[in-house]
Here is the input.
Amino acid sequence: MSLANMTQAEIRALGGLALSCAGADESALGMRALAWYNSLLSLGINVPLFVVLDLGAALLGERAELAPPRETPRLPEGINPAEVAAMLRDYAALLTEVSGTDIAAGLKKTRLDDGVLSTLLTRALGPVVDRWRSSNNLFEPIPVNAESLTRAMLNLPQAWAAVDRRGELAFLRHVLQHRLHLLLGIEQIDLDTVELLGLMGQEGSMPETELVDLLAVFNSPEANDVVNFSLDILPSVLETKRGGGQQVFAVDGYSGIVSSGSLDSLFLSELAYDDELFEQRFLDNQMLYYAHEAQDRPPPRSYQILVDASASMRGARAVFARGLAIALAKRMSLLGFEATVRFFDSRLYEPMRLRRGRSGLHGSGSLHVAGILAFKGERGRNYARVFSQLASEMERLRERSSVTVYMITHAECHVPIELIRRVRESAELCGVFMLPSRGTLDLEYLPALTLHEVVTDAALRDRSERANRALSIVEQASSKTPKAGSHRVDDDELT
Here is the structure.
């Protein structure tokens, strides 16, 4: 295998692995590193692939030992081999120090999506890259291709020597000069946020828009309160199990003949054809099958969780609303329902859906948690406009799906009752209202809601009570459909 079919960008990136202290001989780690590398480049972090691979391996504990390469590659003219050998020893020592940090120990206990790790690498390398004086973007995205990786590893000396490597050596020297910035960037990673992302099952490839949201979460102190609240309630939410059930089917005969089915329902006269014609009819989908009577199934149910993002929802209210939305969406997905989270203020924003992943829960993927944590709405509010749009959407969906809408808002969310009735004609509508420190819930449309819950200011400010209140709302939502007009409040609700 030669380098003939590889692009210059591939040769530049993969040939640099000659300096790697982790090595890319294991294809799984090498392929993951390619995904991290491309993600970092998309976020403006222009670094060599070997640094991405080594730092990722150190954080994840993928290598028992991080040591300099056995043979120093051929160096450009004018580069001192002894100096490079010393740099590689110092580089291996730095990676070993990274692998021994508390952050690395915490990450080793969590199953991380490649997108999450790419964000962590961005946090770690960002301060170092910001101080990099080179104006040339040497490194470019490359395809995540196992064949190219294998070809490069089999021809590593040739791939290394194919381009000028002064850029890689200069960056390695720069990393060692700014080792404290690298270590500080790693120590500033919030492990609670990483744990939450692990609990929510972030798997599969992640769009760049979600990477940006993730980066915003790790850079936002405000998101940390929501993360901590979510970690208080999610372990209880995740106790949900989907039990197996018995299928009730028409076992007393067939109701007709159709052109598709299983072999055990094959129409008996099909067996009268000779072998060649039988095979041809099978390949052409011309065979006939007995059919059972179709069962009447109710339309699929989905949940839309609307979170008020107006100026009235700040501080403890915003923390409770977003944490509750995450928990509700996760519980409904565990129960097999489609769940989306939407924000509203002066307008109704697009849904944050479950992302389709490789092995997401029951094939449904994982929730865009970063978007919920990092969301910032517009100023102002226009509840009439929001619920007019919602009513129109529900009217379009009513024939295809049964929808339950949860609105998480405050006690002064005044909506014209005509709009509430329009929504109720097409969907169930439940409300979660947060009271001020002094005040009552007095909204005209309350009797029209399927269910409403009240959360007092005292409950919001007590950590234990806040978690218990959120869990009770999630449990109520998980139970059978409540009767219209039912009402649950805190024990200490103001009257």
